[in-house]
Design a protein that fits this description.
Pfam families: Lipocalin
Protein name: Lipocalin/cytosolic fatty-acid binding domain-containing protein
Shape: globular
CATH architecture: Beta Barrel
CATH topology: Lipocalin
CATH class: Mainly Beta
Number of domains: 1
Largest sheet: 5 strands, antiparallel
Family: Belongs to the calycin superfamily. Fatty-acid binding protein (FABP) family.
Distance between the termini: 22 Å
Structural class: mainly beta
Helix content: under 10%
Strand content: over 45%
Strand order of the largest sheet: 4-5-6-7-8
Length: 88
């Protein structure tokens, strides 16, 4: 099912706070965060996690800690965003 979902990602910055809006045919999510600061998040599948996001070049690297730990790497280019999620 995950491979059939169409997703739009919008990343904005206001001061030192980023907002990541993910819109899909399945569910919409919004997270606001500061780089390197832990925050609470509810994932698209309803899990409660604590996340920290870092910037590495043109990538946002998100570490999620909860019942299932994972890392999501989002790589931004001029015409697309590639996201890879790995359980750790």
């Amino acid at each position: 099912m995950g491979n059939t979902v169409t997703t739009t990602i919008e990343l904005t910055k206001s001061g030192d706070t980023y907002t990541l809006l993910t819109t899909s045919t399945f569910k919409n999510t919004t997270i606001s965060f500061k780089i390197g600061e832990e925050f609470e998040e509810e994932t698209a599948d309803g899990r409660k996690v604590k996340s920290t996001i870092a910037i590495e070049g043109n990538k946002l690297i998100q570490s999620q800690k909860g019942d299932k730990n994972s890392v999501i790497a989002r790589e931004f280019s001029a015409d697309e965003v590639k996201a890879v999620s790995v359980a750790v």
